[in-house]
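Entry 14. Ran structure prediction on the chain below.
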Amino acid sequence: MNKPQITGAGGTVARLGRSRLPAAYADAMDVARRLMPDKPVFCFDRPALADRVAAFIKGFPGDVSYAVKSNPDPEVLLTMAGAGLKIFDVASLKEIETVRHVAPRARLHYHNPIKARAEIAKAYGAYGVRRFSADSVPEIEKILAVTGGDTSVEIAVRFCLATGGGAVHEFSSKFGARPALAVELMRIVHEAGLKAVMTFHPGSQCTDPEAYRRHIATAAEIAREAGVHLETLNVGGGFAADYVPS
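Output, structure tokens:
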């Protein structure tokens, strides 16, 4: 499989099914006018995407990662990597393979908290993944067993809070340990000699800054109660984007 290439000098890129179209287009209307497609066409504005990535990296006071599941198209990932993104949040081996193909040196955070032993082993051994998330004791034990106690591995304990509103899709009922369990998990990770890392996700399209404040404050409380120094806090995304013009 050849490395994905985005054709043309700029503007909107279009792709019909699995066939790569040989040109860039001025905008989506130009695509419709010139191709008159009778099947769905995937379009994205490469310069606009690169500009958005660069702006987020510049404006966010920390490392920036991208959740591949939101759009795993190789051309999108390639554009992001070219714009300076160096960390990708992945949820499956397929996503790991896709990122490695277009950005071989990127750091990968395997933040799906439920993984098979074979998936952990391949991610760790074949693809160099060194951060995994977990929200249960068995998952942590599984990661430790597969990675053989390698202290370069990070286990990000995923915690959750009760629904507080502010997000279009909240995840507190899907993933994450309640704070009391998160304290226990952090102690297990610390006793294994690994760095103390936590992660949370307030939900997709979260527009309420208070939701982030509550989660960050809770992370600090969990770390204090567990008696560990928190090395890294992944604020988990959910950042809202404007889809409808105001």
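The CA atoms of residues 140 and 171 lie 21 Å apart. Will compare against last week's run tomorrow.
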